[in-house]
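Can you give me the bound-state structure? Components:
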Amino acid sequence: MTYKGWLRAVLSIFFGTLMALILFNLFVDPYDFFRIGPWKGSGLTNERLWKIEYLDSHRGEFDLFYFGSSTASQVYPETIESLIPGSSVYNLGVAAGDPWDYQRMLTYLLENGQTPRRVVLQLDVTAIWRYGENSEVYKRFGPRVTGSSAAGFYGGYLLRFHLRGTRDKLGHRLLGWRAGQHESYDRSQGIYYFVHQEELIEADHEAFLDDYGVRNNRLAREAHGMSILEQSLSSISSFVSLASSRGIEVTVILSPPNLSLMNKIAFEDYIALVRGLTAIHPFWDFGGYNTVTLDDHLYYDHGHFRPSIGQAIAARVFGGDTTDISKDFGVLINQQTIDARVERLVAEFEWADSVFGQGTGGGFDPLSAYQGSELSPAGL
Amino acid sequence: MLFSSPVFVYIFLPVVVVVFFALDRVGGHTISKSWLLVASATFYGWWNPIYLSLLIASVLVNWFVSSAIRAQNENGEAARAKWLFLLGLAFNLGLLGFFKYADFFISNVNTVAGSNFVLLHLVLPLGISFFTLQQVAYLVDVYEGLAKEHAFLNYALFVSFFPQLIAGPIVHHAEMMPQFARGEQGRAIPENMSRGVFVFIVGLFKKLVIADSLSSIVVAGFDQAESLNMLAAWVASLAFSFQIYFDFSGYTDMATGAALMLNIRLPLNFNSPYRALTLINFWDRWHITLSVFINTYVYTPILRSFKRITLRNAMVATLLAMLISGLWHGAAWTFVAWGGLHGLGLVVCHLWRKQKRRMPSILAWLITFNFVNIANVVFRAQTAQDAGKVIGGMFGFNGVMLPTSLADMLSGLSRAGVEFGTVLTDVSAGPGTVFALGLLLAIIAFARNSIELMDGFRPRYLTLAGAVVLLLSSLYKIGANSEFLYFDF
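Here's the bound-state model for the whole set.
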């Protein structure tokens, strides 16, 4: 073999692979960047990309933006619109969103002709340990927001092999796997539905809780320190300042994590989070150990709650009917109430440590244990 | 632009190479070299166009100052030449000091004096440490009458040639400028091209598949874990030692390969450093071009500044040179401590060598490798506390834990304080990680390194198959977010 022959062979394989990859990605379009092929709209899609594109083409149509991660997806705009007559709401929940994302999105929207009168920021407790740009393809901002070149963004997408997205899409299209939940997107509202999970719940709710790992009482608190939380709080503060400076009303919500997630949070981290938030802006705390977070039946997994909880959050925050909502779910925290809230959280964490610290046997019902304690609304 | 990014691999490099040879054929060597200069400026400006002006200013100032020094030397104006030399030195060190060390200096002043000066939060221009060193060396040699080549285009390319611009190897004008001055590299040579492509692929694989895969273990162990048990601490430290080697030597391989495609030979920068049997030998094998620079332009001048050259003075010079080397790597006390550790290690090594005592090779390797590995912990740790956490863990200060699967077999050890549990959770690793680290150690210890592979390269089906496998595995990983570790230095 000659040097020329060797070189020709390597370069042919290299460029041949590239061409094949480009054509393959155009056809399969694993994360629906282009939505031009025959298989558009299934599998995971990049919400950061298309939600911004959608809003750019519907500039000025919405006066309330609901920011959050995927956990915000179950707070439906139509619910809020029914509570705030005349409002037009868009859900800007994005997969694995964190304060870095929200600050960036708000900045972009305000610089590009959107004129909301109100913004809602639904935060997750994961802000304690998750912050910054996400490297996964379906969680990256598009070039409109980053200001990077569109050729680089879409070219980079075409020139990579996307294992997860390709597997899911081909599995769905060729092997009949269930579609990714994003197939059920309602782009006009920015929400999606957990169709498959609801089907499983309807078939056998208890089996679903076990199979999907929702029922998990294990106590595994891990302290994360302040380094990431400080960055999160800084972005939240910037978000609030930016909105306020434009005369936009800001509502901050701390979303309700399921018990399995609450049991992973160190007390000092949670207290630092709620105190930090209070210093920035009053907020609604739906977290901690309460009638909702302790009821596994209200969750799809450790963070995603079902639509009924979305409705309850909306009712509590936007002045709806709260007669059926447990009074320990959703507390407005401000400088005057934070000390009382912290006192309450001390009691909740102590209770949880005592109940879950020793391990619980099968059939143990955390909600019943809570309702039997002096912490429950009945015991207040 | 990163060597391992899609835009570099798929577009930039192929276009630069093809256009370079096409222009050389059509327009001659000056045109093709000008193209390389434009390509290098694009490569640098891709990261941040504003800082391109800094690079251009640095090149222009240094070239004009060195021209003036040369003129004064030729006119016998030694005093003026000296002033110009000091001016040039001050410009380079001032630039580096301002961008790299200003905040370090301010924060230390604030700590010592209790003051509250505001930090500048300057973004460190990519490669400033590298192109500054190269130009300082050129200035010194012009002042001493050792630099022969002076054509502007060759000088500008020597500084900014994109394969070595932002993370080395630190090239010397005497080995680069004559290559640019010669006209024969304007013809594509299949042998150079094949070897270049081959070693570039090897480097790409080392970076994307090996180094980047170790990153999550290192981040978990060094930055996220509260404490580390003994095994987890060793896994974290070894993972970093292997990560930085495969990352940096992989980058060097890619630089070597890209340059060779253009018929330019870059100097050797790594030669299986983890096989070294002494620390002196380690520095002959690790970041060789930096060692040469430190030896020529730091150690030797310090030694010369003493009235007499004695062993004691040589050791003092060694220690000082390594402290400066540590500080060159980064503006933090952990880097200075790392440099100090290596300096002390070298002193001990020299003293031992003077005793002319022999040590079994395996013991010498164990001591050298573990010393380097422990010093690497100090290098990687963001704070002294983090370094203490990992090193303390390695020596069992945070307890010894073995896998639960061994509990029945080794239950007697629990009386000695050994615990059983999930050992590697804190470093986001599992049993497979230990096996992978063992495999990497075997590769490092026994396999031929990439430069040996390149030099022994022959166009055979075996090398073709190997290159294709490495290339396709790398292409699978390409585009994921990652940066070269040495970009920070």
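A couple of observations. Residues 6-181 of chain B form one domain. Chain B has a mean pLDDT of 88.
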